[in-house]
Specification:
The protein is α/β, with parallel strands linked by helices and 363 residues long. It contains twelve helices and 14 strands. It has helices spanning 15-23, 46-49, 62-65, 75-79, 93-105, 138-145, 164-169, 210-221, 267-276, 280-284, 305-308, 340-356; strands at 5-10, 30-37, 70-71, 84-87, 110-112, 152-154, 175-184, 224-226, 231-233, 239-246, 253-261, 294-297, 317-324, 330-336. Helix 1 crosses helix 12. The mean pLDDT is 97. Residues 6-138 form the Semialdehyde dehydrogenase NAD-binding domain.
């Protein structure tokens, strides 16, 4: 790419916003030129705004330290300075819907980490390796919004990335019933142990809204574009039931999963399907693409957060403990990095694919 696209980050001071900023440092296609956040941060430099609450393992990128933060609600002002934006704003769902549509209507593409638009029928919710064809619904969304280049695309919930990729690799074996229990890191709530000391040595068996997302969002990912309606129609199978638990881990969502199949795959067939599963990002060799999307670990005690969460820079999925079950057909354990693949990294990879396909261009 001859000239980098100007990227903005909405909600740049929060944990996911910080992860966007960190992951975009030295990106070959995108340059962070604009940071926006709440009015209380507006006017400060980025370094001032995140002083004492920078949560990333790497230092604040030098290129953004002195950028003045804009008020995210000044939509026209922010939009005038960017080619597209990543959205990680922290607001009510109604306010998020409104502000993301407002940005799209300034002809600014929005790649969102938020859940507010995941069930808007003409908004694609994409894992780039699984359902990139859903980006075609953008054409219908633009007609509704009255835009030529502005649109909203979202990524799914962070926790489903620990098991939905495996099930996607196995769709040819016709899974029809799934139990998925997730054990989710505290960074998924935008926290670390300094913010949330009561999580040390603790487990909380409830995460608001997560079980519905875990059960329903994979079905939209596996759905089909209905061109007559101009929307994505979710799949109806497999049926998923879920429990979601918060555990004292900083990064990494783990899932224990039980599956029934209409076909009768062998373990060898299931493992081969995982290891060979590739998507459009791999064939296009996009900058943030993991070369190996899914790895299978044969050791009895893997995957482990401590050893495997950063597989492929946090953009790969780790699967292990695949074995026959006495009630269901097969069971396994999955692991994904919740703020890399599950949040900002998934958004960056989506933006790369949208750029490669011509949906994001220079203004």
């Amino acid at each position: 790419m001859d000239e980098k696209l100007r990227a903005g980050v909405l909600g740049a001071t929060g944990m996911v916003g910080q992860r966007f900023v960190a992951m975009l440092e030295n990106h070959p296609w995108f340059e962070v030129t604009t940071l926006a956040a709440s009015p209380r941060s507006a006017g400060k430099t980025y370094a001032q705004a995140v002083d004492g609450r920078w949560k990333m393992e790497t230092p604040i990128p030098e290129a953004v330290k002195d950028l003045k933060i804009l008020d995210v609600s000044e939509v026209e002002k922010v939009a005038a300075q960017v080619d597209f934006v990543f959205s990680a704003v922290s607001m009510s769902k109604d306010k998020i819907k409104a502000i993301e549509e407002a940005y799209a209507k300034t002809e600014t593409p929005v790649v969102s980490n938020n859940s507010a638009h995941r069930w808007t029928p003409d908004v694609p919710m994409v894992v780039p390796e699984i359902n990139p064809e859903h980006f075609k619904v953008i054409d219908y969304q633009r007609k509704r919004l009255g835009t030529k280049r502005g649109f909203i695309a979202v990524k799914p919930n962070c926790s489903i990335q620990s098991y939905a990729p495996a099930l996607s690799a196995w769709l040819k074996f016709e899974p029809y019933e799934v139990i998925a229990s997730t054990y989710q890191a505290i960074s998924g709530a935008g926290k670390n142990f300094d913010d949330w000391p009561e999580m040390k040595g603790n487990i909380i068996p409830f995460i608001s809204g997560e079980e519905e997302k875990s059960e329903k969002e994979p079905l939209k990912i596996w759905g089909q574009l209905d061109e007559a309606k101009g929307e994505i129609v979710p799949a109806t199978s497999p049926v998923i039931t879920s429990q979601c638990i918060r555990v004292p881990i900083l990064y990494g969502h783990t899932a224990t999963v039980f599956v029934k199949f209409k076909q009768n795959p062998t373990k060898e067939e299931l493992v081969a399907a995982l290891e060979s599963y590739q998507g459009l990002p791999q064939s296009l060799n996009l900058p943030s693409t993991p070369k190996q999307f899914i790895q299978y670990l044969s050791e009895d005690d893997r995957p482990q957060v401590a050893k495997d969460v950063n597989f492929e820079n946090g953009m790969g999925i780790s699967i292990g403990r695949l074995r026959k079950d006495s009630v269901y057909d097969w069971k396994f354990v999955g692991l994904s990095h919740n703020t890399a693949r599950g949040a900002a990294g998934g958004g960056v990879l989506s933006a790369e694919l949208l750029t490669a396909q011509g949906y994001i261009t220079k203004k």
